[in-house]
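Hi F.,

I've been meaning to write this up properly since the lab meeting, where we talked about keeping a consistent format for the predictions we share between groups. The idea is simple: the sequence comes first, exactly as it goes in, then the structure tokens exactly as they come out, then a line or two of notes. No screenshots and no reformatting. I'm using this chain as the first example so we have something concrete to point to.
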Amino acid sequence: MAYEGILLGMGNPLLDISAVVDEDFLKKYDIKLNNAILAEEKHLPMYEEMASNPNVEYIAGGATQNSIKVAQWMLQIPGATGYMGCIGKDKFGEEMKRNAKAAGVNVHYLEDESAPTGTCAVCVVGGERSLIANLSAANCYKSEHLKRPENWALVEKAKYFYIAGFFLTVSPDSIQLVAEHAAANNKVFSMNLSAPFICEFFKEAQEKVLPYMDFVFGNETEARTFSKVHGWETDDVAEIALKISQWPKASGTFKRITVITQGADPVVVAEDGKVKQFPVILLPEEKLVDTNGAGDAFVGGFLSQLVQGKPIEDCVKAGCYASNVIIQRSGCTYPEKPEFN
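Output, unedited:
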């Protein structure tokens, strides 16, 4: 099987500015742990404050890009994955290009002349993280870039697509183009619920593309928010996963499978009207560095097996392996080679 360009991602490329902070810092900027939000005016001074922290780290990130990089790392096949998004013409943008190239991902960035490369503040307290994204250039992605022949060629070549829900705030028309292409050509299209605010405030955009999703990823908080927003009156993650999997589909080629992670609790997989739960690899607390990128890594590991036609059980195992590696390191980073078999 030819793996070159088999998996394509689109999303918001962001440079993570990661630092261990304290409870006072969270209070000062009104931040909740285990959440992901878009930066407001009140958050802007925070980036400077974090940059002056002696232990600050800069790591190329952005949810979809993390997942694609992890899938690439797990596959160990050069150029198996591709990625599109918008960066600025600046030193952070150059850093992003270097990082993606080193990861072996075939990136086709749109480079914006006026906006700086997007950043994401990663505030870590006791190993748990909170994300505050300042999209900047990432917010400037346009479907015209996607339609350019050299970029659309990546879409034509790919057989699997993954887009985090965060991209719904930027370019829903780009998502729609890829979703419709996947449905028309019997390809696999997957997305992530990504954050409670996406389910709440981008409900219409999310619902419009949901019929095209063959795989829906998310975590327990996002699933419960999705349930609440749709008036389902249940907090039971298994039940919610099942309901999402039964949402009407645009194409009958594949049945929808919902995959919900729950931190240290079992992964919930709903398909064919049935729910299965898979235990995760438990990690002693002293080995936890930070949970930043854990969900992204899970999806990356999962997709690395999916594109090889492996059964769902193997996909989940690979997802759990990848997230277990990532939470023992700062940000979404990994050793040179995976030890997954």
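Notes:
The chain has a mean pLDDT of 95.
The two ends are 19 Å apart (CA to CA).

If this format works for you, I'll send the rest the same way.

G.
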